[in-house]
Amino acid sequence: MLSLTCQTAIKAVIFLASKHESGAKYGIKEIATFIGASEHSAGKLLQTLVKAEVIQSSKGPHGGFYLTLKQKKQSIIHIVEAIDGKDVFKQCGLGFSKCSASHPCPIHNDYKLVRDVFENLCLNKKVCDLCESLSTGLSYLVG
Q: Model-level pTM?
């Protein structure tokens, strides 16, 4: 459902949110290494997130990427919409452009249920919620 780019963006935001308390700012190289992306891809991704106001950046010798407290409390749907767009939760599970309730693909009804549950998760889960399980060791960002 989510593109690889969007999955990577969510990892980057969780990484930055998990470091929020330190007040530090992180460079592209460090973030790219942590999320397993090339520096070029990470740079483009991070700039997209800055433009969408999902994360912040500052320039200069002490610059880098970071999250504000308000951004740490945002729903993860903001990340999804910034990268994959608002229509990601309306797309056909088989990729058909004309799939609908009146003209369904073979998995339309089942996929719609899963898609709706996932959209609800993205609306209700906040970035800070995802960090809690990291800090307690119940989840991990590295695979």
A: 0.90
